[in-house]
Amino acid sequence: GAEKIVETIRLMEKGQAKKISQNETEARSYRSVPASFAKERVLGVLQERAVLKSFGGASLAIREMVAENPTILFRKGCETDYPNTFGLRIDADEFHPETFPDFMKVLEKYKKAVTIFFNAASFESAKDCVADCAKRGFDIQSHSYYHTSYSDYPNNRMNYDKAEVFFKNFGIQVSGFAVPTGRFNAGLLKVLEDKGCRYSSDFSYDYLAPPSYPAQHGRFSEVLQIPVFPISPELFFEAGHFNDGAINHYYAAAVDEMERCGIPAFVYGHTSFYKNAPGILDAVCDYALNQKKLEPITMTAFDRAWRTRCWRAQKRKLELPREEFLGKKTSRGFVKEIKFQVKRAFDFETITPLEDLRASAAKKFLLRAFRGQNKILNRGNKSAGYGYGQGA
Hints:
This protein is α/β, with parallel strands linked by helices. About 40% of the residues lie in helices and about 15% in strands. The protein contains 14 helices and 15 strands. It has helices spanning about 1-15, 35-45, 70-75, 100-110, 125-135, 155-170, 185-195, 235-240, 245-260, 275-290, 300-310, 325, 335-345, 360-375; strands spanning about 50-55, 60-65, 80, 85-90, 115-120, 140, 175, 200, 215, 220, 225, 265-270, 295, 315, 330. Strands 4, 5, 6, 12 and 13 form a five-stranded parallel sheet that branches. Strands 2-1-15 form a three-stranded antiparallel sheet. A three-stranded parallel sheet has the order 7-8-11, covered by helices on one side. The termini are far apart.
């Protein structure tokens, strides 16, 4: 293109340039981001604009916290030039010795498409599992140390740094990150930039869309966002849906939808205690890679390919996914919503030890008091681990 511009200018200087009318029937259309929408996207990072949405339709109704306005809403109609790829993002939130081997059998089978984001604190007592994955050549990335996230820079930095030390003990230099509890914000993005992180995958910022670079403070970040399909198998189980056939059909339809819409097909799941989950992941990987013949790719490999644009593929136009996959805004109810927003504003969580928190003495005192009250309220309730969706 640069050479053609120079060539054309020289022809114009000599008066030899040929004037050809543009054929509008063959012209390509590129949409600019409306100014109001661009401003909203920037504020969306700063103000955590994730909302609760329902997915799956009437028969498989589930809920999850996702970006209020995924970028596919304004990128519809734009052209894409990457091949049909498939990747599996695994958030290793928990270690369960009774189910982890079953997950590993599935992940080993589709290793070329798998990226594992380990939550470091959860695997302190199972370091041999992390070492084994590294020895096998898995793409290993960070899911922070404590399975939580914060609204400010200091605590997000503390959480990232502790995880970084954990991975370095295995000789692992991470370049990707997935934020726990779906809470992408300006403080976290600043941490990722300062640490030289290459990419992140957070559906509270974006989902079901091609990658993009978040914008804030009048500039674009260099940390690439790689969106995923934001529904994990555990969401179905927590909602009481245990029909594996119906769930497998939904995932197959989601892969078809992503291919139809020109979106890279990335799905995700967890290393949970649910015995059905490995089979669901096996089925969706088999469908995408063996039946549809999509190209397997890890998130780290996709990041490299996206930046270098080293692929060649037929151009397509982005389409908008159907509502059962894109989701529809819903509500927790007035009282639950108030409680949720108060907890978010106060950074209330019960996972981080108070001595590790970067907070004032007054805030630590309040957190200690609220945590004690929370234990009293939840006494006798059966714990199900961290939980997997923000829709509960």
